[in-house]
Specification:
Length: 60
Amino acid sequence: VHVADVPGRHEPGTGEIHYRHVAQALHDAGYEGIVGLEAFPAGDPYQALDSFREIFTLSE
C-alpha cells in the first residue's frame, strides 16, 4: 500500500484523507504487508514520520 495525503502529497493527517480509517480497514481485512509513505513533509520530517507511525500503528 502506497500513501500520500492530498492536497500537496504531505504526510497522512495533513490533508483530506482520514488515514486512521484506512489503517483500520487494512487491519480488519487482515493486511500484513508494507505501507509505504511518499510525502513532502509539511514541517519537520522527523515529526512527520512520527505522525505516520502513530496513524498506522493500531492497538488490538
